[in-house]
Specification:
The complex is a heterodimer of chains A (109) and B (247). Chain A has 109 residues and is mainly α. Chain A folds into two domains: 1-30; 46-109, no CATH class. Chain A is 75% helix and 4% strand. The chains are: A mainly alpha (109), B mainly alpha (247).
């Protein structure tokens, strides 16, 4: 990490402000004012889109390039974990299954 | 006015029992939250943060998915505004949560509302509306107790998990790839959020753009991919609404 302490504290300040503003938004702005429907619908897409943009490169890109899916152990493990999650909706189990699959592939391949 | 003290005592008892109802209701989710905290705690240490920096982030920022999203960016030295923007995007779901929960607490002082708002986490959104649906807005009985029960449970499970992860991190060899558990946790958070076709369109566009721009400096590709994906989702939504209107 190349960040200095003052920089890091500034980042924490911004991130904490982000937590506080998003979580308390409609606690603070008045009760009678409601979000327009289209804003609410648009906002509802944002977290899934943002999270997938973060995850995709980690799962698909190996050392700066796309590789065949069957050679990409992270992708295989993530797909197994996804199937497990869709069947069970169990977070802890999903982490365990995904990591077990990842570790098995890493050790044996 | 003579009945005032016993009314107060009754009200206090009602909030107290609501508090423990909430604690009981959330018991089943504690192991998952704990595990997520462990993963985030370990990920903080392994992305190069010091012990104090990790502790500070866990206790002050207190937003697991935003932290997990920010860590790889911190590790590669992305600009501060890119990291803060990414965290903010991931946190935007809470604006919707606040629109559901916030109206129940409009009678409180702004300081209390800010404090409740800060604690308006996923667990609250999962349980509070089940017990207090929208039509109960304006009837505050039991709500502060129930909310606090959920908030305290969430805070404890999460912070104990974070501490465990932070202090275990040094014992876990880097070759185990524990950072991958962070990606898996984000995956498990993201999947339930994909509920309709416009979101799927946004997700596909964002993933494609994120992979295509992975070589861009300062992780600017990530920001571009998010914005492109959001525009695509909103556009797809408009298109689908219009098509429905014609039929």
């Amino acid at each position: 990490m190349t960040m200095s302490w003052p920089e890091y504290l500034f980042l924490l300040l911004l991130m904490t402000a982000g937590t506080l503003i998003t979580r308390s938004f409609f606690f603070m702005v008045g009760g009678s004012r409601r979000m327009p429907n289209w804003v609410q619908r648009s906002l509802s897409h944002v977290p899934a889109v943002a999270l997938s943009a973060i995850i995709a490169p980690d799962l698909l890109v190996v050392q700066g390039a796309l590789v065949e899916p069957w050679l990409n152990i992270k992708l295989i493990a993530a797909m197994v974990a996804t199937i497990f999650f869709l069947l069970t909706r169990h977070m802890l189990g999903t982490l365990a299954v995904g990591m077990a699959c990842f570790t098995a592939l890493r050790v044996w391949l | 006015m003579t009945s005032q003290p016993s009314d107060d005592a009754q009200a206090a008892e009602r909030e107290r029992s609501a508090f423990f109802d909430a604690v009981r209701a959330s018991t089943q989710t504690m192991p998952g939250l704990f595990a997520w905290g462990v993963v985030t705690g370990a990920a903080m240490m392994q992305s190069g943060l010091s012990l104090w920096q990790s502790l500070l982030m866990a206790f002050v920022v207190y937003a697991g998915s935003a932290q997990l999203a920010a860590l790889p960016l911190i590790a590669v030295g992305a600009p501060i505004w890119v990291i803060a923007f990414t965290a903010l995007m991931v946190n935007l779901r809470f604006v919707i949560f606040s629109a559901v929960i916030g109206p129940h607490f409009q009678h409180l002082s702004w300081r209390k509302r800010l404090w409740y708002g800060y604690n308006n986490v996923d667990l609250v959104m999962g349980f509070f509306p089940q017990r207090f649906p929208t039509h109960t807005v304006g009837k505050p009985a039991g709500k502060q107790g129930y909310f606090s029960g959920l908030a305290v449970s969430n805070w404890l499970a999460w912070q104990i998990g974070s501490l465990t992860g932070i202090f275990l991190a040094q014992q876990i060899p880097a070759s185990w790839g524990i950072g991958f558990a962070g990606s898996l946790a984000l995956l498990a958070i993201a999947i339930p959020l994909v509920r309709n076709r416009p979101t799927i369109v946004g997700v596909v566009v964002a993933c494609t753009a994120a992979v295509a721009t992975v070589q861009w400096p300062y992780r600017l590709g990530l920001v571009s991919a998010m914005l492109l994906g959001i525009v695509a989702a909103v556009f797809a939504e408009q298109l689908m609404v219009k098509t429905k209107d014609k039929v």
